[in-house]
Request: fold
Amino acid sequence: MKKQLLYPILLIAIISVFFINSCKVALIPGYDASILSQIETTSKQVDKFYLSMLETTTPENNGRKFELFANEYVNIEVELNSLLTKNKIKPLNENSTRICEITLELWQKYKEEHKTKNTLSNGLIILNRQSFNDLFYSMQVAEKGKDMVRDSPK
Amino acid sequence: MNFDINTVIGEMLAAIKGSVNKDWKEVKTASEQFLERDKNRLEMIAALRISGELMREDFESRLADQKKIIEAELNALAVISKALAQNAANAAIDVLEKAVIVAIKAAL
Reply:
């Protein structure tokens, strides 16, 4: 009689182990080293873009007219678009996606400002450089956050 | 079967606490870094407005951009918080899983 009762209890217990195991919580996607690497590369590209503009050009004599920088604006925008797409296709990744959207939005805004005024002051170069530096830092923190997950759900 | 739910719940809570304590440092470090960076940018914007390099309209536009950058930073902190919550929840589930396995082994 006792044995007859034990079998169903054991069966329930074994099923619960499987159930508990499959119930592991997942709130964020897994860490992606290739995305972190692309963030670092794009961050350096933007940093170099603004530093070169600041150190090698002056606003005098149309030295900072938009045309001179249009190609690099496009190259960087392509990288930002790529980062956004890579983040967007991952499930549970709305936070990183939003950071990329904001970065792309501000990149396009500052590009348009440069295009409209056809120049950029030293102060604005420094501020833009700092703003993007901080946005890329946010992307890096988010990506590193995913690496903090100790036991990925099976 | 030897399965004391009160002991298991106690162990699950201890696992959650241990996991959160371990990760909390990361949230603190990132938050402090973000605040420092925010302060530097806001100082720059104020200086540009005072020097006249930023006109009123541009100044307001730049301030609106700061809200977006802070939103990005909060999103980064949200990822760390989610990682922290995920670690804590899974640590608790691991405790429960192990307790059930031990109880099954004892019953066999």
Chain B touches chain A through 50 residues (CB under 8 Å).
